[in-house]
Amino acid sequence: MNTELTQQIKFLLEIDALKDILRQSYLSSSGRRENSAEHSWHVALMAVLLSNYANTAIDVLKVVKMLLIHDIVEIDAGDAYMYDQAAQDAKAEREQAAAARLFTMLPPAQAQELHTLWQEYEQRQTPEARFGAALDRLMPLLHNYHTQGRSWQEHGIHSTQVYACNAHIADGAQALWDYARELIEHAVKNGFLAE
Amino acid sequence: MNTELTQQIKFLLEIDALKDILRQSYLSSSGRRENSAEHSWHVALMAVLLSNYANTAIDVLKVVKMLLIHDIVEIDAGDAYMYDQAAQDAKAEREQAAAARLFTMLPPAQAQELHTLWQEYEQRQTPEARFGAALDRLMPLLHNYHTQGRSWQEHGIHSTQVYACNAHIADGAQALWDYARELIEHAVKNGFLAE
Fold first, then answer.
1. DSSP of A32-67, one letter per residue?
2. Exposure string (b/e) for B79-105, b if CB count within 10 Å is 16 or more?
3. pLDDT tens across A73-100, in order?
4. Which of A36, A145, A166, B24 could form a disulfide with A71 if both were Cys (CB 3.0 to 4.6 A apart)?
5. Which residues of A touch B63 (CB under 8 A)?
6. Which residue spans within chain B are E strands per DSSP?
7. In tens digits, what is the pLDDT along chain B, a chain of 195 residues?
8. Residues in chain A closer than 8 A to B175 (CB atoms)
9. In angstroms, rounded to a whole number, what is the distance separating the alpha carbons of residues A80 and A32?
């Protein structure tokens, strides 16, 4: 058997576990909680559909790759709720360790390429990373709005937190932040989100 | 509000429903059945990782786009089990109608681009479509093998069916078909799959 291929297949089977990592978002269709694998599909396709809203020209394949791998570290580190600052602060080290373990399952050149891409996404300094991160924020906003703020209400989230946590959407795509702000305003007006 | 963006967001919320379409594959991790959204994530990432096994040079972004959208017609048409020929034959018309309904939710130029891409995938005549379709076959084989043939056994599938249904992996990626054949042989030897 081909050794490189065997490594790649082993990695692909390992990341099956992302399908069991539950997020705080509720699906607009069935009302169950979303898992991180199906979320990754959704934001990757979102990048394809909305790429022309990026503030600057982006390499779409690079963004899509980033979004396909952005959450796999949760297999070891778990999902930290975006509005839980303590969980956010605590997760960085666990996620770095997870990235090291998972990506090194791949053949060396590919391991390095994807690990570097994941780091770039995390650092949010390049147009692709900023745009990818914008979509990763916009999608849960949409889920929250279209489930009448279910997840916001369960966690007692206020609009100031929602504005603060999502403002960096503007760094990747100003037009999407304009849309998101209208959504947040409507959510407050409709009582989905506390002022 | 931006009309095009509103259409795109509506489409993105509509396809949330793909997360509720269950396939016959069991996850290697938790043993539950897989849904078509998380499957789409898995094969899209597989395309990124295994692109150099394609028989001819491929446009990776094109394959990834195909795989991100390849199953969305199941939202209306349901998932037809790959070894159920009657279901496969019956689904074509329903899937065409589903594609027409879903893609026309998007702004016209994008609707046409993605609808055409979906048709190209279905027809399996281009290198990208063949490679994408190869991955769509290889992943369930891996799931079956790594759950000791659970789905094969539930449906009374024999190795001749598995060889016949998966042989077109060779059209997209001969090296992956070589790997798949070894897997099928092992599955028969280990009693995961009836001869």
1. PEEEHHHHHHHHHHHHHHHGGGSSS---HHHHHHHH
2. bbbbbeeeeeeebeeebeebbeebbeb
3. 999 998 888 888 888 888 888 999 999 9
4. A36
5. none
6. 22-26, 33-35
7. 579 999 999 999 999 999 999 998 899 877 899 999 999 999 999 999 999 999 999 999 999 999 999 999 999 998 888 888 888 888 888 999 999 999 999 999 999 999 999 999 999 999 999 999 999 999 999 999 999 999 999 999 999 999 999 999 999 999 999 999 999 999 999 999 999
8. 2, 5
9. 18
Q: Exposed (0-12), middle (13-18) or buried (19+): which is B18, by Cβ within 10 Å? A: buried
Q: Which of residues 8-47 of B touch A (CB under 8 A)?
A: 8-9, 11-13, 15-20, 27-30, 34-35, 37-38, 40-42, 44-46
What gap in Å lies between CA B4 and CA A125, rounded to an integer?
A: 28
- List the single residue in B53, B68, B182 with the smallest CB-CB distance to A48: B68
Collect all residues with Cβ–Cβ distance below 8 Å to A167 and sequence separation of at least 6: A177
| Predicted-complex ipTM score | 0.95
Taking residue B121's Cβ as centre, other Cβ atoms within 10 Å add up to: 23
* Residue A36: alpha-carbon gap to chain centroid: 8
DSSP A194: B
Whether A154 and chain B come into contact, CB under 8 Å, resolves to: no
B121: its two tokens: 């995938």
pLDDT, tens digit (0-9, with 9 covering 90-100), for A130-184: 999 999 999 999 999 999 999 999 999 999 999 999 999 999 999 999 999 999 9
Interface membership of B146 toward A (CB under 8 Å): yes
Whether the CB-CB separation of B75 and B16 falls below 8 Å is answered with no
| Segments of B6-59 assigned E as strands | 22-26, 33-35
- Model's pTM, two decimal places? 0.96
Q: Tell me the CA end-to-end span of chain B in Å, nearest whole number.
A: 60
Structure token pair of residue B153: 């056994």
Q: Which two tokens stand for residue A56?
A: 């600057």
For residue A138, give the amino acid letter. L
Q: Is A109 on the interface with B (CB under 8 A)?
A: no
